[in-house]
Amino acid sequence: MELVGRRILVTGGSSGIGRETSILLSRLGAELVIVGRNPERLEATRSRLEGGPHHVEEIDLSDAIKIPDWFKSVSKKVGTVHGLVHSAGTQLTKPLRVTSLNEIEETMRINVVAALSLVKGFRQKGVVDAQGGSVVFLSSVMGLVGQAGQATYSATKGALVSLTKSLALELAREKIRVNSVAPAMVRTEMMDTMFQSLLPEQVAAIVSMHPLGIGTAEDVANAIAFLLADSGRWITGTTLVIDGGYTAH
Amino acid sequence: MTRQQFLSKLESAIEADEGSIQGTEKFVELERWDSLAVMAFIAMVDEEFGVSFPATKIAAATGVGDLLELVEDKLAG
Questions:
Q1: What is the ipTM of this complex?
Q2: pLDDT tens sequence across A31-47
Q3: CB pairs < 8 Å spanning A and B
Q4: Which of A97, A100, A190, A249 has its CA 20 to 30 A from that of A6?
Q5: Which of the four CATH numbers 3.40.50.720, 3.40.50.11810, 3.90.25.10, 3.40.1000.10 does domain A7-186+216-239 have?
C-alpha cells in the first residue's frame, strides 16, 4: 500500500480526517494538494507532511460552479492528479423543526453538490492522470442508519453512498474508481461540535454503541489510503464501513 | 429580547401551546421536554443570541427558571 509518484488532492485537508489522511498519504510517498479555506491552517498541515513537494490551494467549495475550472487550473500548476479525497464537510445536529431551509441547502452544498462538482473537475482530460484515478468520499454511518436530530446530515451522507455506486459504473470506462468510507464517531473537532448539542447522557449512549470505542482520524485515513492505492485496484462502487462495530447492532 | 419573547421562543422550540409557559415550570411537567427539545433550545439560543451553549450547561437545569437564568444577562427588561 504505497503511493509513490501519485498526486492526490484532499479537500478538508486542514483539519480532522482530512488532515490525518494527508499526513498518512505523504508518508506513503504521495504528493499532496491540500485544499481548504484557511491559509494558516493549510500551511500548518503542510508543515507536518513528509516528503513532497506538497501544495496548498484555497477555495470555497460552496461555490460549486467554480470547482471544475479551478481543478483544471490546479492541474496546470502541479501536474496530473491520481486521487481525490473529499473530506471537507459540515455536520448539523438539530431536530428538523428548528432546521432552516438555508441550513439544509448549505449542508447539501458542501457535502454533496461539491462532491459531484469535484468529480466533474477531476475527470476532465488533462486533470486525471492517463493511468486512471481513485476517488474517495467521506460518507458516515449516518448515511446507513439513522438518529434523531441527524436527518439533514443523514440525507447528505446517504446521498454519497448512492452516488458512489452510479459514478463508479459511469467512470469505470475512464479507469476512475469511486468509493466511500463510512466512519462512525471519530475523535475530531467535528465530533466535539456535535457533542456540544447533546446532553452528557446522550453522548454516553452514543459512545456505548461503539463496541470498540470511538475511532481516531488515523483509523479512517488507513482505509482511505487502502482504497486510493493499488491495494484497492479491484474495489469500486462500495462504501467501506469503519465504525468500531456501530452498525453491527 | 424580553423575558416574554424568550418564553415565546421556548414555547415554539418545544412546540408547546402559545402562552402556556410562565417561566416556573419544571421539565418533568412539560410534555415535550426531551432530548430533541434540548437540541432545539440550543439551536434557538444560538440563532437568537449568537451564543453557542454546550449541552452540559443545560444538563444541570431542572426547569424553565434555570434556562432563564442562563440567558438572564442577555434579556432586556
A1: 0.79
A2: 999 999 999 999 999 99
A3: 49
A4: A190
A5: 3.40.50.720
